[in-house]
Specification:
255 residues, alpha+beta, Alpha-Beta Plaits, ten-stranded mixed β-sheet, 5 helices, 22% helix, elongated
Amino acid sequence: MERNFKLVISYDGTRYFGWEHQPDTDMTIQGKLENVLTRMCQEEREEAAVLDKVQVIGAGRTDAGVHARGMVASVKLDTDKAPEEILTYANKYLPEDISVNNVSVASDRFHARYNAIAKTYRYTLWSGAAKPVFDRKYVYVLNERPDIDEMRSAAEYLIGEHDFKSFCGNTHFKKSTVRKLDSLNIETSGNYIRLYFHGNGFLQNMVRIITGTLLEVGFGRIAASEMEGILKGRSRTLSGPTAPPQGLTLMKVEY
């Protein structure tokens, strides 16, 4: 019996080429999940006929090297297994850096991407004389300490609904680049600087470009007041560099 399931997934994206399928590699999160779940469904069939490959739909498409603590996916499975059995099977055969944390039966109409109403991302920076040996895969190590107050001032210009074209990594993106950023909080704890982004949707590389631009403000290379002009200019050439992927984690998807 085919049913629609909702999965909550965590993964360390260090060695993967992102969430989405890539033509020349099987090292994607989506690919690993589909392989395991297809195998699970096939094992339940007594006949030798090969089933169509399972299609896992993610709430978003994280880039190569980006991590997730709460990615959500939907998948239709022809299986008699209970959600708990699917979770156990998946985690038995998935690599150690991918975990299915929860499985539940969803309505037939549930779609992980189209039904999502908000996401929370966290970007983690490290600024200190010592090196973050055990967190090195999950932080962006800075050579100097940025001015956090200036970064917070600049971030205020980004709150609300704006055209974020200046912060989109895909310069040929044809659809609307208007998004609503509900909050952008910058918190510090010792050598850690963490930026929390909450909004209704994010463009390609948007969080990383905003982070890179805020760091330019923090280092005194861009004035906080220039953020308004960068937004209105609607050009990627106006914003700062794209922060590296390892500091970014998708924390939560809301429905």
